[in-house]
Write a structure and sequence with these properties.
single chain; mainly alpha
């Protein structure tokens, strides 16, 4: 029904508009990410660690955390470990490939070296063994930990 109401010209116009809107959103997102990157560098250089921590914790994934971990860890060890726990548990909710499971095990190994990390990793592994017990590849990779 909708197809019969819209003319090809109008549909083409809609596609152009949607593409244009998508491009604008990408530009805004890029500017936002770039500004966060610049702010993080500034906070790091000026030793404004509380602000740096806030930005790092609000960044998705582990990339930014890994970048500034050495700087933040001496002052905020608990917050750094908590962020690792949050991120890796969020990732684990989705089934993945063996390569991804191997990367998670590598992250868990790293987490063990953090203050309080051994206990946190033990809890994560115990929980994953219970919750994700049907993910055979994951269980095999966890056995290598």
């Amino acid at each position: 029904m909708i197809g019969s109401v819209l003319s090809p010209c109008r549909t083409l116009s809609w596609h152009r508009f949607a593409r244009s809107l998508g491009e604008k959103i990408n530009v805004v997102y890029y500017i936002f990410i770039r500004e966060k990157y610049v702010l993080n560098r500034l906070y790091s250089e000026e030793k404004l660690l509380d602000r740096l921590l806030e930005n790092v914790l609000s960044s998705p994934g582990l990339f930014t955390l890994l970048k500034y971990e050495a700087e933040l860890l001496p002052v905020y060890p608990r917050q750094i470990l908590d962020e690792y726990v949050r991120e890796i548990n969020a990732e684990a909710k989705n089934a993945a490939t063996r390569d991804t499971y191997q990367a998670w095990v590598k992250t868990l190994r790293h987490m063990r070296s953090l203050p309080g990390g051994k206990e946190a990793v033990r809890q994560i592994v115990a929980e994953w063994r219970d919750v994700y017990r049907r993910r055979k590849a994951m269980m095999e990779e966890l056995n290598k930990l």
